[in-house]
Amino acid sequence: MLLLLVLLAVQAPIDSVQIVTRDIPNFWRAYDLAAGTDSAERVRIFETVYLQPGSPGLRDWMRVRLMNRDTVRARLARAGWPKERLDSLDSVKKVTAPFYERSAAEELLRALGQYPRYYAAVRPTTLSVDTNSRITQGIRRGLQKLAALYPEARFPTIYFLIGTLSTGGTTAQSGMLMGTEQSASDPTTPLDELPDWAQKNLPTHTFASLVGLVVHEAVHTQQKPAPPGQPDNLLRHAMGEGIADFLAELAVGPWIANAPRQIYGRAHEHDVWVDFQNEMQGGDSTIRMWMYNGMVPPDKNHGAIDIGYWVGYRIAGAYYARAKDKRAAVRELLELRDPVAVLRESGYAP
């Protein structure tokens, strides 16, 4: 009876997690209506059919992933916003809807213009998220396993959206935001229009990998902010992302084993680690050489895009393997009060 109560306690928050897909058919409705119209009309259609009726997740998505901040800033200046108000735009919620909606529509149309065959090819897959039980049930099983590792976990709504290939997933106030178009290709999908980083990485972003990607983002929703005074450096960023990769793997299995960063990391672990040790206290410019670096030249990204994730993943795995109390280890990784101490206690030194 006690075991049943424990299982029910874990199950309840998972069953209540919403999976919202209604924005995806709206995107394709706008796509069809906009075909053959002039540029101004295409922008209007995407604003009124896809963006304005959007879910709370899509509203956040526009601000954090779709709008072009430089474009929006220039338009706000022309609209009379004073410089001090413009300088506060890091708080993107202060940008009013007409400005970010228009820019978001323009950015979407730019991506559609650059990669028309890719978007056309992934349409059926993006529309199948809510009917694909392998995906929806896999997500709920993964979240349930994550909650078993960290019983305090409570998960926000999951929004499946269409973007500009800029991200596979992120988090915002509304919940988890998934760029479904990045995980909808298959071996027949044309990739030749895409930039080099996408041609290398999208083949590993399979539809099945959406399960692991959602759980990765779910880990981010449980992570705690850095304590006051902690440096915002490469080590902390690599640990934050690597912990999300590692805990997602505990929950769903090796979902990114074939990603370029994992393949390169396994083959060059010692060399990567030597470089990382030398640079792990670095700030923004260093971080961009290790992470979030699809546009960085191959000779400057330490061997593979997002290889910093790999290092953090390996440190997290070593820490967890050494821990006698696995639940306590998961909590320590999520809180990450002191990345240097976690690294030291992990014993990681390939």
Q: Quick one: biggest sheet?
A: 4 strands, mixed
Q: What is the topology, as strand order, of the major beta sheet?
A: 1-2-4-3
Shape: globular
Low-confidence stretches: 1-12
> How would you classify the helix and strand content by structural class?
mainly alpha
Residue share in helices?
Answer: 55-70%
Round the mean pLDDT to the nearest integer and report it: 91
Quaternary state, please? single chain
* Strand proportion: under 5%
Number of strand segments = 4
Write the H/E string, N to C: HEHHHHHHHHEEEHHHHHHHHH
Rg for CA atoms: 21 Å
Number of domains: 2
Number of separate helices: 18
**Alpha-carbon distance between the termini?**
46 Å
Give a short summary of the structure.
By secondary structure, this protein is mainly alpha-helical. It is 60% helix and 5% strand.
What do you see in this structure?
A four-stranded mixed β-sheet has the order 1-2-4-3, sandwiched between helices. The protein has two domains: 8-221, no CATH class; 227-346, no CATH class. It contains 18 helices and four strands. Helices cover 60% and strands 5% of the residues. Mean pLDDT is 91; it is low at 1-12. The longest helix has 19 residues, at 234-252. The chain is globular and about 60 Å long. With 350 residues, it is mostly helical.
